[in-house]
Every structure is written in structure tokens, then in C-alpha cells.
Request: fold
Amino acid sequence: MDERELIARVRAGDGAAERALYDAHVDRVYRLAYRLAGDDELARELTQDTFVRAFERLGSFRGESKLSTWLHAVATSVVLNGLRKAKRFRQRETDLDEATGISGGPPPAEPDLKRRLAQAIDRLPKGYRIVFVMHDVEGYTHEEIGAALGIETGTSKAQLSRARGKLREALADFAGEWVS
Amino acid sequence: MTGDRFERLLRDAAQDYHRPPETPREEMWRRIVAARARRQQHVLVQHRWLHWGLGIAAVLVLGIGIGRWTARGPQGTETTVGRVPNEPGTLAYRVAAAQYLSRTEALLTGFRTEARPSTPDAQFAAQARDLLTTTRLMLDSPAARDGRLKALLEDLELVLAQIAQLPAGGDKEDVQLITQGLDERSVLLRLRTAIPAGPGPVRMQGAL
Reply:
């Protein structure tokens, strides 16, 4: 079944087509929600809300972009609004100052790098974090990110570059150890 | 390790950032289906109320119109509604008016009951706005020629306007003033007396 036919059938209330649409996209939506929320229950809620809203609004989808692009725009809007409301991710305790105090000794073990990287990602400005997670972690293209967030492709690239710069800065001592 | 290698290391390490578990497809699908069913039901209930409200409004407008026409009589002689119970136009008018009075009574009874322990729900304001329009139609109809009914309709207009203007969440003092007014002017008692008695929509007693 091609995309146009799938959309037509969903609009006509075909339950099997709805399920097919869900199956085709749910993994990517849930993964993004989980990566950004860091909380399983919240990620489930956001994924559900995304699909409930998408099924409700599919009638307004004019086919000017791919369905996946439109659906991910719905998903990012739901996820970002949900995160704003929940504020759970903001309450995450991170302490970069403590992390940057590590120096000397043998090169740190990889698990420590991962822990500190996670803390550093959490501390990124929201826009940088979202673009970094979407591009470097979940593999979205800059075009997809631009369409989903409603920003220019160039803005997405610039934010990614700044995000990486901030992470390098936050993990400078690691870089020193590993680069040398 | 070069800068590029460090970049690669970062990217690899980032894969563990909030690493998602396996997608709980079935559970989420069940919840999506349930959420959509709940929304659908909510919409249906709203539609049903809307249709019902529109139906009542249509019957009222039609009934009041016919009532006004028939009240003048064939030679332009005016009669009161109660004196021509067997004319079909009057019958339609009385059915519509009885429905209006019953709805108003239900609203005011509910409002008064809820006003005692807490501030009443915002839905009362919405219903009051709806009934207020009908009250003004009634005041402009043959019913207003009956002094007793006219006085009741004027009191209802005031009370409904007060309820309609209650702010969301309600103001306890305003609510008290409204219930005081209801009690002092025995609005509910007069309203119940005005509603025709009997089981069917076409009743032969009461003020109508």
C-alpha cells in the first residue's frame, strides 16, 4: 500500500490502515520521545498523544511533504510541549563543575565518559540538545530536523555545531587524555 | 587519539544517552485506541447536547411564533394563552414553554444544590446564557401578558443573567447573593407552580 492510499484509508476510518500507519512510525516517535524525556512513562504518554493528535488531524494533511515529515513535526511539537509541562527533564540534577574537576591519572574508563557525556547533554541549551539528540543520536537529517522544528536547515547545522562545541568543552579533560 | 577520533568516541558514547528500551507497541496502541474512543464519546455527547439544545430552541421559536399569531385571534382580537387550550398553535407554544420552564427549574435546582457546599461548576453559566436568550423570547411572547408569568420571567431573567456572568471558578459572595435572591423571591417555588403538571409534554395545568 503506498502512502497516498494509506492516508486515504485512514481518513476513511479504516482501522487496519491506522494500525499500519502506527506500526510504520511508532518506533522512531517513541525513541525520540524517550531520548528527550529520559523517562519511559512520559515517553509513552508523548507517543500516544502524538498518534491521537495525528489521527485527528490527518484530515488537514495536504500532502505537501512526506507523511513521515508531517508526523515528526507533530511528534516534536507534542514532545516539546509535553516536556515543558512536565518539567521533569529540567529537574534532572547534573553537576558539570564536579565533572570538570577530574584531572590526572590514567585515561578514564568509557562508562565514566558516557555518564559525563549524558550530564553534559542534559546541560546543553534546549535548542542545542534537541538538534544534537535528533541528529547525532537518532540520525535525523538536517532537512528533517528543520521541517520538524520549523527552523532553517542552516540553523539546525549551526546549533549542532555549537552543541558539539559545548560538549567538547565540557569534556575537555577527556579529549586531552584520549588525544594525547 | 586525534580530534576526529574523539568526535567519533563522543558520537558512540552518545548512543547510550537515554537509550530507549524496546518500543512497547501493543500497550501504547491499546492506550491510543482507548483515548480515541473516549474522545469520540465526548464529542458525541457534546453533539447530542447541541442537537437537543438546537431542537428545543427551534421548537421554542416555532411555538412562540405560532402562539403570538394565534393569540391575536382570527379577527385581531387578543386572547390569553390559557383561554384557548384547544388550538393547535397554542398547544405548540405551551409544549415549548413547558420545556423551557422545566430546563430552567432543573438548572436552578442544580445551581442551588451545588452552591451550598462549594462554588458551582462553570457549566451552569453556559446553560444560563442559553436559557437567558429563551427567557427574553418568552418575555416577548403571549406568556408575558399573564402578569404572574411575566413577573416570574423577569425574575428568571435577572437570576439567569447573574449566573451567566459568574466568573470561572465562581465568586462565593456572588453565588450567595444569587441564592438569596432565589429564596427571597421564592423563584423556584413559583417556577414549579408555573410548570404544568402531568406526565406528558402536553399538560393542562399550571400557568401555561
